[in-house]
């Protein structure tokens, strides 16, 4: 009986290959997600007149779906990702176009699509697709002429960013910066990149003109107002009337509550489940979940979460060095950069270093589409890692 148990354990271990550290990081982040969403959903539970349990069960459901997605992506041979790279981006662009016409909105931002009773965010799918597409185009090459570069890179990325701009200015900028980093690492000519920057600058001016005439890009107003408030001096606030000051405080309510939560704790924090700001912050379970982590687990807990993402990025760099193909190297590096960069944006906003962007903490914040797409990224990274291990095993 004992021997059967050992053989069963060996079978499970053999089925799970790839970078073991990335597997561990994934499970730790998933565990943190369940714990923190349960704790941070206090305000939702209060408004709904229930306990935190239903929100925990909902998050566990998303994590379960995410794990299935991860395992499917992990088992798919790497070659298939080359085949779906172009259709994936075209599909995400089509979904974004459909979303503009029939999507749901939150705070004047069109972000959601519904199929029956299921809702999802096409913007999260776009993050997955753009990395795979750029990796494939760079691997194919033939980007020496600016004409080919424009057709294969500049136009698709430009269309994607403009569509993202309708729902979220920060997401559009995020995708543009990730694309730029991949193009630099992929060895695209700097002359092409400088020309792209010039075209992008002209495009931004035209977008502002269109917005001022038609109001088509309402998220630009949101973004510029957030930046203006972030850099607003105390002198400016002092010169406001009482009504203006109160209105300004209402707009910066989340940022102020986050600062109070972080400044009220030390190394250890208040303890698990003892956050007080979770009842005050409107989005404690998503946009400000890192604030709750620090409030409950202190500076130590915040550093541990930060180091998990940095550790993931380091392991992705190690994997990139082991890749023998351009596509696999860029995909691993691209997804590692997407997850880590989004985590850094979330953290920097929560600690008051950057203006509000609305980015969630990957795999930890409450969510459906974002969790599933991040799990897919983990799965693809682990699939490539498994392939590298198989190649090494055959050569040894």
Protein traits:
3-stranded antiparallel sheet, mainly alpha, single chain, 396 residues
Could you characterize the architecture of this molecule?
This protein has 396 residues and is mostly helical. Helix content is 75%, strand content 3%. The protein is built from 16 helices and 3 strands. The chain has helices spanning 2-15, 20-40, 42-48, 53-75, 78-102, 122-140, 146-167, 169-185, 190-214, 218-230, 234-238, 242-251, 253-263, 289-322, 326-350, 369-395; strands spanning 104-106, 109-115, 118-120. A 3-stranded antiparallel beta sheet has the order 1-2-3, with helices on one face. Strand 2 (109-115) and strand 3 (118-120) form a beta hairpin. Helix 5 (78-102) packs across helix 7. The chain is globular, with a radius of gyration of 22 Å.
Give a quick rundown of the structure.
The protein has 396 residues and is mainly α. The mean pLDDT is 84.
């Amino acid at each position: 009986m004992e021997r059967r148990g050992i053989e069963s354990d060996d079978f499970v271990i053999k089925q799970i290959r790839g970078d073991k550290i990335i597997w561990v990081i994934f499970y730790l982040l998933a565990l943190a997600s369940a714990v923190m969403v349960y704790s941070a959903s206090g305000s939702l539970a209060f408004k709904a007149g229930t306990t935190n349990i239903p929100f925990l069960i909902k998050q566990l459901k998303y994590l379960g779906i995410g794990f299935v997605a991860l395992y499917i992506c992990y088992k798919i041979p790497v070659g298939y990702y080359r085949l779906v790279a172009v259709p994936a981006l075209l599909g995400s662009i089509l979904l974004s176009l459909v979303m503009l016409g029939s999507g749901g909105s939150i705070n004047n931002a069109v972000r959601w699509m519904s199929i029956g009773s299921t809702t999802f965010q096409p913007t999260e799918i776009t993050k997955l697709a753009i990395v795979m597409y750029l990796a494939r185009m760079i691997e194919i090459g033939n980007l020496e002429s600016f004409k080919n570069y424009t057709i294969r890179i500049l136009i698709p990325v430009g269309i994607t960013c403009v569509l993202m701009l309708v729902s979220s200015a920060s997401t559009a900028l995020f995708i543009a910066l990730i694309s730029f980093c991949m193009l630099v690492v992929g060895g695209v000519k700097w002359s092409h990149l400088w020309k792209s920057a010039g075209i992008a600058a002209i495009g931004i001016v035209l977008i502002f003109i269109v917005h001022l005439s038609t109001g088509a890009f309402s998220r630009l107003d949101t973004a510029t107002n957030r930046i203006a408030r972030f850099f607003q001096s105390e002198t400016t606030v002092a010169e406001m009337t009482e009504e203006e000051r109160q209105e300004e405080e209402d707009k910066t309510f989340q940022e102020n509550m986050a600062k109070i939560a972080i400044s009220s704790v030390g190394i250890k924090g208040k303890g698990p489940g003892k956050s007080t700001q979770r009842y005050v912050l409107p989005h404690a379970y998503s946009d400000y979940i890192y604030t709750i982590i620090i409030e409950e687990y202190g500076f130590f807990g915040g550093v541990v979460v930060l180091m998990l993402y940095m550790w993931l990025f380091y392991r992705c760099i190690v994997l990139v060095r082991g890749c023998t193909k351009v596509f696999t190297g860029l995909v691993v590096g691209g997804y590692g950069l997407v997850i880590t960069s989004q985590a850094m944006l979330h953290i920097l906003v929560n600690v008051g270093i950057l203006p509000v962007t609305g980015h969630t903490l990957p795999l930890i914040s409450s969510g459906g589409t974002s969790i599933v797409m991040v799990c897919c990224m983990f799965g693809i990274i682990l699939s490539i890692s498994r392939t590298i291990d198989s190649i090494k095993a055959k050569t040894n």
